[in-house]
Write a structure and sequence with these properties.
By secondary structure, the chain is an all-alpha fold. The protein has helices at residues 2-27, 29-63, 69-86, 90-99, 102-113. The N and C termini lie far apart (68 Å).
């Protein structure tokens, strides 16, 4: 994992530098810089819209009594997309925009869900302690006093 992160932190800036130089030679310095700013603005507007829609989906799924695992994973991917879009560069913008495509997020979720175990936790007003095998735990309605 450490080598992967090292590779990413080494390769991504080199790709960005190469793209800045190549794009800058074709369209010039100021249009190149303006392009980075415009993609960040467009990306943040799309993330805002998709994020609000995702929050609505999470509320509906939770209200139905289901764990919103996919929606939460997509929310994390939207967060990563936002970070990538706010990072100056065309390669990171491309990766961020790809994460804004719902089909791509769903594909990533489906690829990762077999590797991740999601456990739902329930909360209630009454928490029972771990059961002792020699103890029979009765509710009030199951117990009667024969005095």
């Amino acid at each position: 994992m450490g080598r992967l992160l090292f590779g990413i932190f080494l390769i991504v800036p080199l790709i960005e530098i190469g793209l800045f130089i190549s794009i800058g030679q074709v369209i010039g310095l100021w249009p190149t810089l303006l392009g980075v700013i415009v993609t960040a603005m467009i990306g943040s507007a799309i993330i805002r819209k998709q994020g609000l829609s995702l929050l609505s989906d999470i509320r509906a799924t939770t209200a139905a009594g289901t764990l919103p695992a996919q929606q939460l994973a997509e929310g994390m991917m939207l967060g990563v997309a936002g970070a990538l879009l706010l990072t100056p560069g065309y390669f990171t913008d491309l990766c961020g925009f790809l994460l804004l495509v719902p089909a791509i997020r769903a594909g990533i979720y489906n690829a990762l869900k077999s590797r991740i175990t999601i456990v739902g936790a329930t909360t209630g007003t009454r928490q029972r302690p771990p059961q002792d095998p020699d103890v029979i735990d009765l509710d009030r309605k199951d117990w009667r006093d024969d005095d």
